[in-house]
Amino acid sequence: MSDRVRAQKNIAVLILFLISNILNAQGPSRILSSIFDEALTDRTAYNNLEYICKHTKGRIAGSSAAEKAVEFTKEALLKAGADTVWLQKVPVPHWVRGTEKCRVSSSANGKRDLSITALGLSVGTTQKGITSKVIEVHDFEELKTLGIQNIQGKIVFFNRPFDNKLINSFAAYGGAVNQRTTGPSEAAKYGAIAVIVRSMT
Q1: 141 and 57 in one domain?
Q2: One domain for residues 27 and 71
Q3: Of 182, 200, 189, the residue nearest 122 (C-alpha)
């Protein structure tokens, strides 16, 4: 056995001995209680989250907001006592949001502008924009049933909210979010020229 391995084993034994003495002196319940008390009363994590949410909005990869969030997190880790924190350069795609406009017109309701936001990394349109008929679908099976003959050259509108009857809101969200993540590519298979997706909630 090398001196280095022997020293590591001795240190491990010493640490276990010290922990054992502390537990015997103070009692496991008191130590656990103090840990829980600290976790329940210290607001550092909430304050950090509040800062990230309010002061680094729109943290799209490659944006100044994302960089600001990374720098803040580094400082927060150092304040928390981390002995080593470093930033690593990572190449990321940089997507710039353009002008977003959507107008729906019908013979019954006239023209109406919608409040919209473009999905990150989506393909931009030309200055001329896109004009076409809108076809509403609720899921990919309906998309398949309509087929290329009904979808080709149209704008597909995915209109499936999440199920509010589910207590687990994450499961409800998960049941609806595929229309946003893969809806555009699914609609493109049938010749759709654009996709509009409702808010999941």
Answers
A1: no
A2: yes
A3: 182
Residues in the chain: 201
Q: Among candidates 150, 152, 149, 155, which has minimal Cα distance to 183?
A: 155
138 pLDDT band, cuts 50/70/90, is very high
Q: Are residues 137 and 187 in the same domain?
A: yes
Tell me the two tokens of residue 10: 């001795």
pLDDT in tens, 60-115: 888 889 999 999 999 999 999 999 999 998 888 887 878 888 999 988 889 999 88
Per-residue pLDDT for 4 more than 80?
A: no
Cα dihedral 169, 174, 180, 181 sign: positive
| Rounded distance between C-alpha atoms, residue 130 and residue 128, angstroms | 7
Boundaries of domain holding 174:
103-197
Same domain, 74 and 107: no
Same domain, 21 and 107: no
Handedness of CA 25, 31, 34, 38 (dihedral sign): positive
